[in-house]
């Protein structure tokens, strides 16, 4: 709310919980994409500004382990806003940028 002489401005922000709009990959599609392209983006939800996984990330993580990826072959690197794949000006773009990528070496 902002008030000045003779006028009042009110801004309303409606907050809603994040709703995932991208379905987790199927195990066979995951392997096919890695074999074809050498990488795949997984949309795994983390707590805001933390490395803690949200509970809805578990099915995606289980698919990767069941696909035969040994834990000692996994490494992590955080790029934050330095390597976006979409424009962060829209909610759709920000959703696409919330990703974990698997890269076949």
UniProtKB/TrEMBL annotation:
Residue intervals of the OmpA-like domain? 1-105
Q: Which Gene3D superfamilies match?
A: OmpA-like domain
List keywords of the entry alphabetically.
Answer: Membrane
Q: What segment(s) does the record annotate as region Disordered?
A: 77-105
Q: Which GO terms describe its cellular component?
A: membrane
Matching entries from InterPro entries are given as:
Bact_OuterMem_StrucFunc (IPR050330), OmpA-like (IPR006665), OmpA-like_sf (IPR036737)
Biased composition range(s): Basic and acidic residues: 93-105
Q: What is this protein called?
A: OmpA-like domain-containing protein
Q: Which organism is it from?
A: Pseudolysobacter antarcticus
